[in-house]
Design goal:
single chain, 2 domains, 256 residues
């Protein structure tokens, strides 16, 4: 799927799902993005996804302009979709936006752009892979809560978990790019903090080492999935590049 295809999919989920008119937009968007509406972090998660969505609209516009696409061909769909996705509308009701955003001309913009950018597509992560990674994160965070750990080690692991979780949360919006960025961030943390991390690991308990090992396993899985997804877009060039970059940094932690 490419940038336009992802936006088209989100648009279809927004307008193609039957729902009550008085539902607040924060709950509408939680449903569209596959979030848990009653989660304590639901509103923050929706804001994160909406910011990513609007950035992806900007990305689409840049790509189309680079192909000398006239601005008027992107309208009115792009502007209307951007308006309805404003975070200032979270407490407003769906009934205030439904009619205008559901007009058929809005969808045409993303449909033809999806065809135009068909050579820019990447493989989609299957739901099973996505669920497995999210489950791994949930389990790792549970271990973080239940394990007595040095403050530095706990903070280090939590930072990497947060980066990967956020990237996965916006994967359906922006594709593999956020995951790649998160893994580069993780690789940077392992590199820049190598001496301190090794010192902390040398005196760590077995339970602390177990958490570090599981963290390394999560990063490894995410790197392999990201490389698999991006293989089509790169036409095989650079395939498994992230895994080759990240895995050597994790070797001592995964085995430890």
């Amino acid at each position: 799927m490419n940038t336009a295809g992802r936006l088209l999919s989100i648009y279809d989920k927004l307008v193609g799902t039957g729902r009550g008119n008085d539902i607040a937009m924060v709950k509408v968007w939680a449903e569209v993005f596959g979030l848990t509406p009653d989660s304590p972090t639901a509103e923050d998660d929706v804001v994160t996804c909406l910011q990513a969505l609007r950035a992806e609209m900007d990305n689409l516009r840049v790509k189309l302009l680079a192909l000398n696409t006239p601005e008027n061909l992107m309208q009115p769909g792009l502007t209307r979709f951007r308006n309805v996705s404003s975070t200032s509308n979270l407490n407003a009701g769906w009934n205030g936006f439904r009619d205008e955003i559901s007009k058929p001309e809005n969808r045409l913009v993303f449909a033809w752009a999806d065809w135009t950018l068909r050579d820019d597509s990447e493989e989609d992560m299957c739901q099973e892979q996505f669920d497995e990674l999210m489950s791994e994160i949930d389990s790792l965070e549970a271990s973080l809560r239940d394990t007595e750990m040095a403050l530095y080690l706990r903070d280090f692991v939590q930072r990497q978990v947060d980066a990967i979780r956020t990237a996965l949360r916006i994967y359906r919006v922006q594709g593999v790019r956020p995951i790649e960025a998160a893994l580069h961030q993780v690789a940077g943390a392992y590199t820049l903090e190598k001496s301190r991390l090794e010192a902390a690991q040398s005196v760590a308990s077995e339970s602390e080492k177990s958490v570090l090992s599981r963290m390394g396993g999560l990063v490894e899985k995410a790197a392999r999935v990201a490389d698999q997804i991006d293989k089509i877009r790169k036409a095989g060039e650079g395939a498994y590049g992230l895994a080759k970059t990240v895995l050597p940094l994790l070797a001592s932690y995964v085995s430890g």
